Amino acid sequence: MRLLVTGGSGYTGGRLVSLARAAGHDVTGTSHSARAEGLVPLDVRDRAAVDRLLDELRPDAVVHTAYVQGDWHVTASGAAHVAAAAARTGSRLVHVSSDAVYGGRPQPYTEADPPSPVYPYGAAKAAAETVVALVHPGAAIVRTSLIVGDDASKQHQLALDFALGRRTGVLFTDQVRQPVSVDDLAAVLLELALGDFRGVLHVAGPTPLTRHELGVLIAARHGIAADLVPAGRGADLPAAGPQEVRLDLTLARTVLRTRLRPPDEVLAV
Ligand SMILES: NC(=O)c1ccc[n+]([C@@H]2O[C@H](COP(=O)([O-])OP(=O)(O)OC[C@H]3O[C@@H](n4cnc5c(N)ncnc54)[C@H](OP(=O)(O)O)[C@@H]3O)[C@@H](O)[C@H]2O)c1
Hints:
By secondary structure, the chain is of the alpha/beta class. The chain has a domain at 2-147 and 180-206 and 248-261: NAD(P)-binding Rossmann-like Domain (Rossmann fold, 3-Layer(aba) Sandwich), CATH 3.40.50.720. The protein has nine helices and 13 strands. It binds NADP nicotinamide-adenine-dinucleotide phosphate.
């Protein structure tokens, strides 16, 4: 398969590029600010550049991971550019979305629950999903959760920064997510790129954890005691984001071969 991975210099995209190359696929990964060897430069905000790259490569499949959390134009417009170009060149599309599209509630969300974003990042990811579904109806849209695995993960860096006093802040005891292994996620993205699933799919770890519980697991890998991981409530802060976001994984268990491992297995010391 000829595969294009946007965000090939990123955490998930980088893992996917390596995995797909190791499996023998012809993979092009893109970077933006990073100048990594073996990747081609691309700014997804530049629609003409996205079109040129897709015309040149004519990939069988595109996995779109590129985003910037605080940048609507990259996250929403960039996704639109990639989806339109993939539809035009007849390339399969796997679009990576986020549990941030949801506003939070105690019961798990299924794929049938429409986005209900409560902050700008979630709104940009919801807008991206909407345009992807419209311009590329055959696309797979993967809503995932906190991506973990090693210290290249933003979630690991945040927990360690707080626990080691490199940054001031707390990990919330009232925000629940379902952390997923970066390797499991990359395997799912490759599986979907090779398959024909269309529509929204929730892909996350099976175990809901608070951000603080996740931080304690990450700290333990470095021999850092749990009581050094600062805890606090998001509800006490303005704009801390959604509280409990659980993703129902029934559909993923039905359609995927890849097993989604629990965080205590992924992060075992
Ligand atoms: N991280 C999480 O915990 C989490 C949770 C839920 C969902 N997600 C979703 O998962 C996906 C991957 O997340 P990640 O954390 O693995 O990503 P990441 O490590 O932050 O990488 C982001 C990628 O986007 C690229 N990029 C930034 N601006 C760009 C632009 N203007 N044009 C083209 N590429 C650009 C970056 O390239 P350079 O570095 O070269 O600039 C980088 O390769 C995202 O779609 C995100 O919304 C992430």
